[in-house]
Amino acid sequence: MQFNYILGFAAVLWGFEGVNCVGCQPGWNQFQNKCYWFSHTTRPWGEAEAICLGFQSKLAEPRTHAESAYLISHFQSLHDARFYWIGISDLIEEDRWIYSSDQQPIAVNDFYPGEPNQHTDANCAALWDTGHGKWADEPCGHVFRFVCEAEFDEGGDILG
Question: Which residues pair with 36 in a beta bridge?
Answer without folding.
Answer: 29, 149
